[in-house]
Amino acid sequence: MSTTQWDAALAIPVDEDRDHIQGRADAPVTLVEYGDYECPYCGAAYPIVKEVQARLGDTLRFVFRNFPITTSHPHAEQAAEAAEAAAAQRKFWEMHDLLYKRQQTLDDTHLQRFAEQLELDMERFDRDMAEHRYAARVREDFMSGVRSV
Q1: For position 57, what pLDDT does the model report?
Q2: What is the mean pLDDT of the chain?
Q3: What pLDDT does 116 receive?
């Protein structure tokens, strides 16, 4: 039997303390997605990734990193910051899922509604968004994607 070997080199290795991860650390397969919440291709991949996760179960560790392509997607960076603001309140995956499921409505008003729906601390969320508290994190993810091979 032949197997395919993939040799990816991430600029920033997967870090349990830093990254958004679903699955076991010792899973034999790690899938790292650099995603843009406004990208139609990422949106099309979203249910496929969910299906792969369901099928592979404990054999897959899924890592999501932000990769907003702001030249094409005007709401992508703000959506990524909203996901990170939700992560600060332990609701990253819930926000992640909402952003992909409602990809056509990523303006500030809808991001606010999503945060309310997730019962986030709205004062904190609004402050984090106004101050772009997680912009550096989003840029770091983006640049790690650019630098990875």
Answers
A1: 97
A2: 96
A3: 98
How far apart (Å, rounded) are the C-alpha atoms in residues 147 and 21?
20
Kindly list the distances between the CA atom of residue 117 and the CA atoms of 47, 86, 122, in Å, as whole numbers in the listed order.
21, 11, 10
Per the structure block, which two tokens stand in for 137?
A: 């994190």
SS3 126: helix
Positions of the chain with pLDDT under 50: none
Alpha helical stretches, state H, the chain: 40-56, 76-87, 92-101, 108-117, 122-130, 135-147
Residue with tokens 């080199």: 9
Q: Which two tokens stand for residue 47?
A: 């249910």
User: Where does residue 106 fall: left (phi above 0), alpha (psi -120 to 50 degrees), or beta otherwise?
Assistant: alpha
Strands in 60-66's sheet, in edge-to-edge order, are 20-22, 60-66, 29-35
Q: Number of helices (H) and strands (E), helices first, in the chain?
A: 6, 3
The pTM score is 0.93
Token couple for 131? 């101050």
